[in-house]
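Entry 14. Structure prediction run on the chain below.
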Amino acid sequence: MFKLKVADSKLLRDMATAISILVDEATFKIEPDGLKLRAMDPSRVAMIDFEWPKALFQEYECTAPSKMCINISELLKLLKRAGKDESVELSLDDKSGRLQVKIMGKYIRDFTMPTLEASEEEVPTPKITFNVKAKTTTSGLSQAIEDAQLVSDHVKIEANAEKLTLNAAGDLMGATITLMKGSDALLDLEAKEPSKATFSLSYLSEIIKAASATSDIATLEFSTDMPVRIDFQQAKEGKLTFFLAPRIETE
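Output returned:
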């Protein structure tokens, strides 16, 4: 038996949007204490680590741990039909194996969608020592990424004890975006040593754009030429974390 209900459909819609950036078929772990998902995108360049404790939901029932794989894009189509103040209930029909989506507001809509074969792959959390930890506003980080995209498809992120710098260079133009520690955009910065790494702007842009709907604060952790970890602060101990592999530049 599995059922969850949210009073505001936006909660589920934002979650599904963030996940859909990397994976189309998502295998959720349904556990008594909440929902979990850890998956890599098909190119294995990026990873999502997601947890929503039962306290986030208006109602949550899980009688036994299980897995559920669904097409996130198809679920998103249904969730987008829910209005701002409408509630949504998801439940798994044990007999048919189908996911039931109920939208409740001015009127009631019941949808069903198939579940898919759950992935058995266990994706481990990357074991990385980070030398830089930068706490930013998602809006400030998003704007900096958009600035860098004007001139290139990749960006070098650098940090020392005082500032976080984004450098982008294209064939014709270049851009340097500097976020100073303690500014409105860069709330806090810790650097054990100066570090720099280059990342794909298309991945960064999509991740930040989608996840910013779930959080006002993003924390970046990285080291020289190592993957970046981006945590989006969630309510009630929820977790939304992305890992993105660096682009290795050759001299």
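The chain has four helices and 18 strands.
Filed with the rest of this week's runs.
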